């Protein structure tokens, strides 16, 4: 239902803004989303929520602001990495995979500056005494897959189709114009590499610098410690607005536990995150939902419930809960501070880059979306793989404006905001004295 409503508003906006050539609208029956393919079926609207591969800015559907003479001059863009293997494991992981995970076509290079370009491949040996704990095949936990890399390359290509070819903000893919920062997770810099390759296939044989922060204080994930934020979240996950949905879905949870062997595990009981992750990672790669060794399987209808609950939980924690905005600001304030700096640099004419690209995680995207106020328009959904937020700066005569684009579509209310107002919005998400507030309890 959420998806349907969201889509309707997107459609209304598209009508308002664009040509008469908006696609036909018959297909609104089951618009909740796609969870089993990186390709959205052609009879769905192009910007349908697709958990496996979010819609993003692309030349075919890009809407130029209806402001004569305006020129795109700068942008910051934040994306989630693309599809990967599960990040969470069942206690008896091996038996819950009908097919092995195959990553042998994704070469993982890592060679600290030497000239031998070594790469590694994960192998699960069939003689390993702990084989029951892990799936068969050549993929590690949480690893970008070849399919994920291909989606990243396509994403970069679409980025270039707009910001390189259509609008000519960028003339070539080089490190002077494009700043890239990722988290410290391998899959995020692999996605950065895939996107850069998609922007310029000739780059494929060159090196390109990507900035990371130290893992313990990285603001992208985010991974800096903030006990105050943890306490706020614990409190709002202890009230009926949260606990009711766990109680109401207790029979679903019991069925999942019986099939998957997760009974009594706290990490699987406090929210549906791990079920969501372990199901979607499989379905996005055309693996079946888990079946156990005595033939008990997760039903498609139960998976669909988990997907809906996942949306509810993400929206609650980062957007709808009482104190969610404080929680969001404390945990993402450092990243908002970086955005403030970038746009201030741009305003003062000192910004050296034309584009800044950040590759993060679902937790980065949901916090950015919430802090920018996207959740005030409609409930936020679990940020899909490849989810994208672009903050474009446009120049019109002597003034600068910012437009925010979410999953390829301009955001209502943020289509044309004076740059100063946008900086004020970003600044409003940065708590004063964040280090000491985080450590005050
Ligand atoms: C994906 O799921 C939908 C809805 O359950 C189904 O109609 C479709 O055939 C599935 N597609 C693939 C590629 O499995
Ligand atoms: C995983 O490997 C083990 C040991 O070779 C084998 O018994 C089992 O059938 C394999 N499972 C799958 C899903 O291929
Ligand atoms: C894994 O995928 C690669 C590339 O598609 C293929 O060549 C290889 O045979 C696959 N390995 C297995 C064990 O299926
Ligand atoms: C929100 O924060 C206020 C102030 O600390 C507190 O009184 C209230 O109980 C919190 N609400 C929830 C749901 O945790
Ligand atoms: C399960 O959780 C969802 C999401 O909060 C809620 O809408 C639904 O009413 C709950 N109960 C049942 C029985 O599905
Ligand atoms: C498999 O799942 C069914 C329920 O779907 C359960 O009754 C059974 O105990 C499970 N088997 C194992 C080995 O976990």
Automatic annotation (TrEMBL):
Keyword Signal found: yes
Keyword annotations from UniProtKB, A to Z: Signal
InterPro entries: His_Pase_clade-2, His_PPase_superfam, Histidine_acid_phosphatase
Signal peptide: 1-24
Gene3D superfamilies the record matches: Phosphoglycerate mutase-like (3.40.50.1240)
PANTHER family (alphabetical): ACID PHOSPHATASE, PUTATIVE (AFU_ORTHOLOGUE AFUA_3G14570)-RELATED, ACID PHOSPHATASE-RELATED
The keyword Iron appears for this protein: no
Protein known as: Phosphoglycerate mutase-like protein
Family label: Belongs to the histidine acid phosphatase family.
Pfam entry (one): His_Phos_2
